[in-house]
Amino acid sequence: MRAVVIGPGLIGCGFVGQLLRSSEWEVCFVGRGPVVDLLRRHRRYLVRLVEGPDADEVLVDGVSALGLGDRRSAAAAIAGADLVATAVGPGNLAAIAPAIADGLRARQEPNNVIAFENLLRAGPHLRDQVALHLPPGFPLDGHGFSGAVVSRAVSQRRWPKAPGDPLVFVGDRPSAFWVDRPALREPLPEVTGLVAIEQYEARVQAKLYTYSAGHAACAYLGFLKGYHYIHTAIRDPEIETAVRAAMAEGQRGLAARHGAELAGGEKELDAILSRFANAGLADAIVRVGRDPRRKLAADDRLVGAARLAAACGPAPEKLALAVAAALVFCDPSDRSCRGLHHQVAVTGVPGVLEAVCGLGSDDWLARLVTEEFNRLSAGWAEHNLLLSLEPALWAWASPADLAGPQAVAVDAAPALAGVG
User: Fold this and answer.
1) By three-state DSSP, how is residue 386 classified?
2) How many domains are there within the chain?
3) 213 is in which domain, residue-wise?
């Protein structure tokens, strides 16, 4: 069985490719940049699965790679594949749609395309993008398009230290992924970890509104307090309390919409927080926090969770705090972040909440986020660290002051801006 994986990045190599090769599939990666050159040359890489100080290494060998710019070869590979997977990030799906369309046009039998993207309705969205590049009347309904809910976090790609050394991808151990059974065509691909379910959208929301919401909240609050890594930020008592509360608010909304079993409880929150504390991942706050504009969309991890929770109970205060912290988040290398800051400067927070989050100025959730933003932005500035999230305990420290005992919980370098 042959599979094409478009996007040889963290999830493409560190999750999808590893599971496919473990299931004895032939794997061809399609992408751009030096990763493609290394995979083409060495035909192998390592996946290091870490849990604290312990790690398992999985050699993924026998792979091939093609450049996305070679449209003829990419189309031929897609046309001859028994499965097509994408792992390019939601914002890049439109860019790869022409290559998928070329491949499907040259194929006679039905195929399945699975989008391993952390996005609601990833499958239908990708299908719509592909349809734009196919002739009228093309039988696209004969092919399956599903998203995938990924259980593994993959935090790093390590380049070879010496010629001949393999690429190394670092992630944690979970290996399950959920797909939308009704959206796929039989026979379903036989891949280790694949779980085909009927209520797929509920499963996507369950991940987004607990794990992803908590991850983002930890990154944005951790940035405010000067941390560099998720595993150190989550050990901060204030941040741990706020993140747990934000995820519990997400669970409340999920329970009202989909039932308590899917939403989970304290046990599930403990497991998620334990994963955040996995120091072996060394998951950078700037990585988790990047692209805040997309992560603040109306149905995404923070605002979507807050809106669902608000519909069935008390105000989701900690989710609102996380949204406000996302608006303060400052990574100069992130175009999304720079654009968001510019928009805040031009339209103010209410304008951003309406344009980006779908929250009108008369929405009480928008008012709550605006209040939190005003508190945070008044207590934080570039090159300063906000040492406490409690207004009554706010304390200030310049970079020079951080050498004293008050800095024992901070893993940040002296300058905060652009580092996270």
Assistant:
1) coil
2) 2
3) 201-394
